[in-house]
Specification:
mainly alpha
């Protein structure tokens, strides 16, 4: 929530960038998507 966006927006962006799948296989935690 610190990013100033809603949770729904987060998930939508995660889906756009495909982070929802990569977050598990990637070594980076899902919290680093702010990059």
């Amino acid at each position: 929530r610190r990013l100033g966006i809603g949770r729904s927006t987060l998930y939508r962006k995660m889906k756009e960038y495909g982070l929802e799948e990569a977050s598990e296989s990637d070594s980076e935690p899902s919290g680093t998507l702010v990059a």
